Queue: 2 jobs
Job 1
Amino acid sequence: MDLIKQLGTLALASRLKRLSDHLMSDVDRLYREQKVVFHPRWFPVAYLLDRKSPMAITAIADTLGMTHPAVNQTAGQMSHYGLLVSSTDKKDERRRLLALSQKGRATVKALEPLWRLIKESTEEVLLKAGHDLIVTVTAIENELQKESIYHRVSARLFQDFHSRLKIVEYEPDYKKYFRKLNYEWLEKYFEVENRDDKILSNPEKHVIRHGGKILFALLDDAIVGTGALIRHDDRIYEIAKMAVTEKVQGKHIGQNLVQALLDEAKKLGAKEVIIATSAKLKAAVSLYSKLGFTRIKKPFYYPYDFKRKTIFMKVKIIQ
């Protein structure tokens, strides 16, 4: 049983790595039998520098589609065996230029006949396999340049996650979660002040009955986030008591809650929505800015003073 084969596309990277290792091993054996000190992984850099020298490491990496550290590692190994020499770019002393040494050029020349045979033998394998692997690999690379596997999988994970997420309105049974989630972050970053405790202990009195709203984020029916929309007057509302449990932070739940609260504010006829937050909460400030909030001075109508250092942000609501 060959599990890698059975796994098919799930193990494509592992299978290609195995194939690469097999080919590299054969070529390495040929080099050793020819009594040449050369590693198969050095081939792209050696081949390039034989035709164009000197070159900066960044230019080599860009030309070969390799990472800067990978080129650095290869250069270090080749230099150790006397195949490369380096120099400083006269136009920019920060740039390091690489070139084949005399020994390096002699090694490349000695290997060229062997490389021709390797090329012919590889083409023979591809011909007998009945597929033009080079064309297929090129097509795969082109597709990955358009969108990587990372971004494709991340998009699917995002869609799956948010299909499980629901934003719901306040119910008496949710009261304890409003308090619990807010206490969780307040105790982590600041302290729970009297004004906080009043709202969190009796949200019906201080938010709902004054014409405000409280929303909750449910993930697989578990409450993971909350936020309140507090009414100051018919035109001005405040988003407050935003909290998302730590284990699901960074998954755009806060963004969904803020957007839902802004939608509620619009339904209620708000002209502007303010937020009192802290510069310490950089992720939150960044989110609010992304959603159109801008920094303002403390509004004259804002009645509370907290011990924690507070900044204010505002967004206008277009009806």
Job 2
Amino acid sequence: MSQFFAIHPDNPQARLVRQAVDIIRRGGVVAYPTDSAYALGCHIGDKQAMERIRRIRTLDDHHNFTLMCRDLSELGTYARVDNAAYRLIRQKTPGPFTFILEATAEVPKRLLHPKRKTIGLRVPDNAITQALLAELAEPMMSVTLVMPNDDYPLTDPYDIRDTLEHVIELVIDGGFCGLEPTSVVDLTGLRPNVLREGLGDVTNL
């Protein structure tokens, strides 16, 4: 049965954050709030945890996982970013945007789109997520918490616990999140290509 941590959305309790990160480092899957919707996350290097997320979400091999990053300093490690793309990302982060970029060799191959060798990266504007990433000191592998056959993400942490308490290790209650996922912007071409219009404003892209 999963643990359930109520973490303050504005002032995350350091003790609970440390405990949550310890669960992630030990191979646990966590449901946690972001600035758009609740997400499922795990350690970037944990293949078994990633496969468990695939089974929970019934994802195929073509699904792009997202690396949740603390700030832009991690972009250059995991993605190839030219000056124009960097300026655009800097304008839009932190915030509800996922950017599709060409991955570097630092990204495990199992996380990549199998044909395009791309990865999604984002920098969230959420105090709990930022606290987790700061304690973890590396990006966290993540996907939006949308259950199979559902059109929208789960928003209530108590519903998340009832649904997933036997298949994940931790639910973080950070209050209700929205129904709208991030906007997804592909930056691998000559100009930005909006793949999904979500919470982030894409009118000036």
